[in-house]
Design brief:
Layout (H helix, E strand, L loop, with lengths): L1 H24 L15 H8 L4 H6 L3 E14 L2 E8 L2 E8 L6 H9 L5 E10 L5 E12 L15 H6 L1 H7 L1 H23 L3 E2 L5 E2 L11 E4 L4 E5 L4 H9 L4 E9 L11 E10 L3 H20 L3 E4 L3 E4 L5 E4 H7 L11 H10 L11 H12 L8 E7 L15 E9 L2 E8 L4 H17 L8 H9 L4 E7 H8 L19
Parallel strand pairs: 3-5, 6-10, 14-15
Antiparallel strand pairs: 1-2, 1-4, 2-3, 4-5, 7-9, 8-9, 10-11, 11-18, 12-13, 15-16, 16-17, 17-18
Helix pairs in contact: 6-7, 7-15, 8-14, 10-12, 11-12, 13-14
Length: 500
């Protein structure tokens, strides 16, 4: 079946190449760039979609627009076709007015679905009451050399959809709506932060010392400086430098890069929001994030509930649930205090679950966090803040004043996935230096690039005011709001293994 389909496509492509030659022989430019589009299709529909047939009979409404032809229906001396631009689609009607009607000859002999055309004409309503452009002049703008994809084959191959996203977008209005909603999510967040007196900034993507997280970085080389550089895994340390410099509320929406596995939750290149505010605590940020996300959902969906498969309805109406990590292990994980009172006990539990990458040398705090990841995180469906993480798993967070074994930190979980991570920042340079040294040692033991970020320590010695910071995964938020299962569904061009 696949071979037959390929043969049919080859014939269609050859026919279009032949048409291209014929157009040029007639002096028609198949890639014309002189047409001036005056109205977009969405604007035409918005302005005139509410007018009835009598209105157009009495008023000559001229339009001049352009788009891709997506379907053609021929009826001898007349044809209907639909064109689509980035704002909508509309039906067009063209008829043969004489034997030498250049417009109609161009359409019948040389135009195919997939071509881009400009149309000039007047609006009317058909017998079925559909708003339509009666074409008086047709312009071929781009000759498509490949046929449009058919909805019933080709695009069901998920890999093909991701590799050829442009075809996916042509064929599926649902996919187009996902990415339009993605843009709305980012715009809303940006406007919310701007209205809260945050300053949008940009920090380096190529860094000499990758910091701010513990992930494996991508490595590159700057030839002129003969310098090894890394793609950033997080902008955190640079954003905090800006707070030291007196910019008390800063944020960045940008790409981060982590040289790790690919899954439905992970892409090596992803979009993060990180923001920092001086004179605030992680508890302040819990309320801030709760308000921002609940208003985002309300703004985009008209209510606080969304549907996310397979969990059904998720409720973003504030307040979100808040629970300490240790309490969650008891209340949600079902453990008893004696079960998880020591590192060896937890290690044995994790070994029985065949958890990779753990060691008997791991600290109690590290193992508690892994236990949470395995037994609690998947059960956190409605928005839930988890607080009081062990200090060993939070090298950049401030220790809690009442319990120095934990830090002032929260993570936000929705639908069994981490959405955000925040904490009151560690601003004690001596404590930070000690933790950095332990982090460097751990990275070296894992074979990861690791150097002390002495400049960041110097920045802290200049004085970082009491500060709280938060990172939110934009891709994962978009997944929730578009009911998308895989992160690759919300990234235009996800990374894929090359086809040989």
């Amino acid at each position: 079946m696949g071979a037959i389909l390929d043969q049919e496509l080859n014939v269609l492509e050859k026919n279009r190449l032949d048409t291209l030659t014929k157009l040029r022989e007639r002096g028609i430019n198949p890639f014309d760039n002189k047409f001036v589009k005056k109205e977009n299709i969405g604007g035409i529909i918005s302005l005139y979609g509410g007018n009835n047939r009598e209105y157009f009979d009495q008023n000559a409404v001229g339009v001049k627009t352009a788009g891709r032809i997506i379907v053609v229906r021929n009826f001898g001396k007349a044809s209907f076709f639909r064109i689509r631009d980035g704002f909508g689609e509309i039906q067009c009607y063209i008829q043969k007015n004489s034997e030498e009607d250049d417009n109609f000859i161009l359409f019948k002999e040389f135009i195919d679905a997939g071509d881009f055309c400009g149309v000039e004409g007047h609006l009317f309503r058909t017998k079925t009451d559909e708003l339509t452009i009666k074409v008086e002049r047709l312009h071929l703008l781009t000759k498509s050399l490949k046929p449009l994809p058919e909805k019933w084959h080709g695009l069901k191959d998920v890999e093909a959809r991701y590799r050829k996203r442009y075809i996916d977008l042509i064929a599926s209005s649902e996919v187009r709506e996902i990415f339009k909603k993605r843009a709305k999510v980012i715009n809303f967040i940006r406007e919310y932060l701007n209205s809260s007196d945050f300053l949008e900034v940009e920090t380096p993507i190529m860094q000499a010392n990758p910091g701010g997280a513990t992930a494996r970085p991508f490595k590159t080389h700057h030839n002129a400086l003969d310098l090894e550089l890394y793609m950033r895994i997080a902008p955190e340390l640079y954003l905090k430098r800006l707070v030291v410099g007196g910019l008390e509320r800063v944020y960045e929406i940008g790409r981060n890069f982590r040289n790790e596995g690919i899954s439905v939750k992970h892409n090596p290149e992803f979009t993060m929001l990180e923001f920092y505010t001086a004179y605030s605590t992680y508890e302040d940020l819990m309320s801030f994030v709760e308000d921002m996300l609940s208003k985002l959902v309300l703004n985009l969906n008209g209510g606080f509930q969304i549907v996310y498969d397979p969990y059904g309805k998720l409720d973003f109406k504030p307040p979100f649930r808040r629970i300490k990590l240790m309490d969650s292990l008891f209340e949600i994980g079902g453990f008893k205090a004696e079960d998880i009172s020591s590192a060896p006990n937890i290690y044995n539990i994790l070994i029985k679950r065949d958890i990779k990458g753990i060691s008997e040398k791991d600290s109690l705090g590290e193992l508690l966090t892994l236990l949470f990841d395995e037994f609690v995180e998947p059960k956190l469906i409605n928005p839930t803040f988890i607080t009081d993480y062990p200090v060993e798993s939070s090298p950049l967070a401030r220790r809690n004043d009442e319990n120095p074994a934990v830090v002032d930190r929260f993570e936000l979980f929705i639908a069994g996935r981490e959405i955000g991570n925040a904490f009151s920042e560690l601003n004690d340079p001596l404590d930070q230096e000690e933790r950095f040294r332990a982090q460097v040692k751990a990275k070296v033991n894992e074979g990861l690039p690791a150097e002390m970020d002495d400049d960041f320590i110097d920045a802290l010695k200049q004085g970082l005011p009491p500060t709280a910071g938060c990172g939110i995964g934009i891709d994962r938020v978009v997944m929730l709001l578009t009911n998308s299962y895989s992160i690759r569904d919300v990234i235009f061009f996800p990374l894929l293994k090359p086809v040989k």
